[in-house]
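WARN no homologs supplied; continuing
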Amino acid sequence: MNDDQREQVRSNAKYLREVRPVDADEIYEYVDGQPHPAAVKQVLRESAVDLGLVEREDGTFEPVAEGPVSVAFDGVEAFPVEYGRVLEDLLVERYGAGWPDGDSGDRLRERIRAIKDDYYHQRDVAYDEETALAYALYHLPDYYAVVQYVVADLIREELVPRRLRVLDVGAGVGGPALGLHDLLPEDALVDYHAVEPSDAADVLTAVLDETGRNFHPAVHRETAEAFDPNAVAGVTDGDAPEGGAATDGFDLILFSNVLSELDDPEAVVRRYADALAEDGTIVGLAPADRNTAIGLREIERAVADRGPLTIYGPTVRLWPGETPSDDCWSFDTRPDLETPVFQRRLDEGDPGEAGLDGADRRSGEFVNTDVQYAYTFLRRDGLRRVDFTPDGSRVAKLADSEAHVTDRVDCYAAKLSRDLSDDGHPLFRIGDGSQRVDHFAVLTDESSLNADLLTAAYGDVLGFENVLVLWNDDEAAYNLVVDGQTVVDRIPV
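OK structure emitted
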């Protein structure tokens, strides 16, 4: 089909979308030369993002609905089998049907060990084809789950539009892309751009072939530093349905487990912020280990303290003008996933003759079903998850805890961990955005008055009334002791 015919298809679609579903079997009659309806449908699919059209099950197209996405999300139990088959097909293509056994299995297991060791020692990882496959074997399922938990929070708070533009920086082998795809409803229109320079993009491209008709992916094989987000950030609102013009910029910019690999992550985040829609969100994700989780907080604080971004959550800033300086090793934990078949096969694979596996191989070493992650939400519009500023004449700042040791005070703070105790009194990291050192809430006497401390979700802001402030010399931290005299209330979003 030539350019003139393509433009005729688009023009007819613009007219018809305001009247009735756009049908290729109807449009082709109005195009010079009457091209085959299948060719017309292909043009409609290619133009769907610009035209604001979603494809229905019957093959016709209609304008994407306005407003935010709404989904029923109850968590992630398992990595989908169909995506696992795509990964195994890639492994069979490279190594043969016996990929988990022999020398190939040994090499993949050794690569996983090397990847984990490099991350632990904060060394760069070079993603050649074998490393990318090993990385996918170990991390594809948990990254698939993590992005759903995190974006589901934004969806619940009506911050994800049904017409959605996504930039996935350092997209890797596709865990976040697949998770986002499966979280969103089929009638959402997703313009998805991935930035991935390494051989991981080959795995990413293969799994993206499994996405649905209204998920429109593009893969840019460039580094985060070299890629120009503004080159693809604009939306031609003249092509959007009347009243439905999209805002320029990306609604969601995702940095998933990549910031720790950049030489100057702060500068990269600042540059990409220019490509964020005015009401969009930058989502930063990091593994839960101490180095990367604290590193994420350092980046978060830098771009919030010196601009141009502000923190939406979960590490809220409740006090204007205050900035925290604690270490804040803060992360969330969700239920484990079912063990994927491909991980079990690799874990149980027979060693090869070369003996690369070594004698120290442990059962379960190559199974990764934990869902633990640190995250941040950053925005340009100053919106906060809890739009609330305490009254300094009535409640205490955590920055002033030294002056309140052995006193009972009232204060507000976000819950920034799951229970950290080891079968002792429940213990939770907390912060109000002013703390200079670590603060923890310790529940010593559970009651109906303080039950919200246990039931609140990660990131929820809590009001503490009559809580005892103590200094913990062993941990060099303040403990806020929640006992039978303390009232804890969750502050609504």
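Residues 145 and 477 are 33 Å apart (CA to CA).
OK
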